[in-house]
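ok so for the tutorial part 2 we go from a plain amino acid sequence to predicted structure tokens. step 1 is just haveing the sequence, like this:
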Amino acid sequence: MPSDALESIMHFAHLAAEAMQERLGEQLVAIYLHGSVATGDFVPNLSDLDLIAVVETSLPASKKEELQAWFAKHTPPSTLAGIDCELLTRQAAATPSRLPHWDTIIRVQRHQPHFDVHIPESTDGYSLLDLAMARERGCVLTGPPPMTVIAASPRHFLLQACTTQLRRPLSWDVINDRSGAILTACRSWLYLFKGLHATKSEAGAWAKSQLPCYASLIDTALAQRRGDTGQILENQEVKAFCRAVLSSLEDAIHASDMESHK
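step 2 — the prediction. this is what the tokens look like for a chain of 262 residues:
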């Protein structure tokens, strides 16, 4: 990504962090930048700006509305596809759970030529994997290091989160973001074998080297992520790959369950 584009995004991230500090005061514990901007895997016009904010206690509706109003008034850089600002309490961050209790989520989505801001009714899609990525590879915008605030999650919990993430596209008749589905599956597979929280590009490169029978499929997914729309991913091929990864995850979870009952 061009340095001026990254500079613009980081400037906006710091502005958002300052606005949250002003509005939340001592309630704010920390703000972490995670996802593709933090890890260097950002793709212009495709990737989001991902923020996790930790607060002392659940915020009143008035504070949530103030934060939502700030994002509505400040236009993000045009290279962003959107913004996910996820908030949870200090206790929720420090307590490992299969399903993190998000205090609120502010979602900014680009709809040309403007951005829409809303608080989703459901937290589906906002998972434990976000917290794990922020803990392991997040950048501090304010507050202490993420490993001192966000608890480490048991491997069993994270494998289950991976399966949930994979089942979602497999439940659709047609997967629209096929490259995203493949690279998300690669991330799950890499975590299963190496215990690492990787970017989509890192996971794709690893999986391609480990799974030669799928190398062409993964190569196409990586090319599409870089903006090459000349190559096609067939829906059924993508589903078959995701099912193969899901099967491996389910086998690992079953083996773990059997071991724990011995």
